[in-house]
């Protein structure tokens, strides 16, 4: 079974930055695309960013384009989400997930099969 563990969440002022990390177990990490999703209280889980297995292609939800950057280090089984110019609307629990695909940066939850437990990001005004 694949395990994903997120870290790096916390409290930050609007306009600030934060970097989230996701550590993955398993020997086939480099074969799969990875993604980040977020969920605020009372809201549906929302796609944030995705990256293909090789890191060649990335995809972002419109609201974070130009502010967030997803990256990966296959030698370390790690995925990152660099978040800059944070806004109060970014406040949510952020989840790391493994896709069923390798060469596609999928944007919907049903296209991911393994999930971490989440890390909380709170942006104050």
What does this structure look like?
With 125 residues, this protein is mostly beta strands. It has no helices and eleven strands. The chain has strands spanning 4-7, 10-13, 18-24, 34-39, 46-51, 58-60, 68-73, 78-83, 92-99, 112-115, 119-124. The strands form two sheets. Strands 2, 4, 5, 6, 9, 10 and 11 form a seven-stranded mixed beta sheet that branches. Strand 5 (46-51) and strand 6 (58-60) form a beta hairpin. The chain is globular. The termini are far apart.
Architecture blueprint of SSEs:
Blueprint: E1 4-7, E2 10-13, E3 18-24, E4 34-39, E5 46-51, E6 58-60, E7 68-73, E8 78-83, E9 92-99, E10 112-115, E11 119-124
Parallel strand pairs: 2-11
Antiparallel strand pairs: 1-3, 3-8, 4-5, 4-9, 5-6, 7-8, 9-10, 9-11
What low-confidence regions span 5 or more consecutive residues with pLDDT below 50? Answer: none
Largest sheet: 7 strands, mixed
- H/E element string? EEEEEEEEEEE
| Bulk shape | globular
Mean pLDDT: 97
**Proportion of residues in helical segments:** under 10%
Question: What percent of residues are in strands?
Answer: over 45%
Distinct helical segment count: 0
Number of E-type strands: 11
Distance separating the two termini: 40 Å
Summary of the model, kept short:
This protein is mostly beta strands. The protein contains no helices and 11 strands. It is 0% helix and 48% strand.
Properties at a glance:
125 residues, mainly beta, four-stranded antiparallel β-sheet
């Amino acid at each position: 079974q694949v395990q994903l563990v997120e870290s790096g969440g916390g409290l930050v002022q609007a306009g600030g930055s934060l970097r989230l990390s996701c550590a993955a177990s398993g020997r086939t990490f480099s074969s799969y695309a990875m993604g980040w999703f977020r969920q605020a209280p009372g809201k549906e889980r929302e796609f944030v960013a995705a990256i293909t297995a090789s890191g060649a292609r990335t995809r972002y939800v419109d609201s974070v384009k130009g502010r967030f950057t997803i990256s990966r280090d296959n030698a370390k089984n790690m995925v990152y989400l660099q978040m800059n110019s944070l806004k109060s609307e970014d406040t949510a629990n952020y989840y790391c997930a493994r896709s069923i695909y390798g060469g596609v940066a999928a944007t919907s939850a049903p296209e991911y099969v393994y999930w971490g437990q989440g890390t909380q990001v709170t942006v104050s005004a």
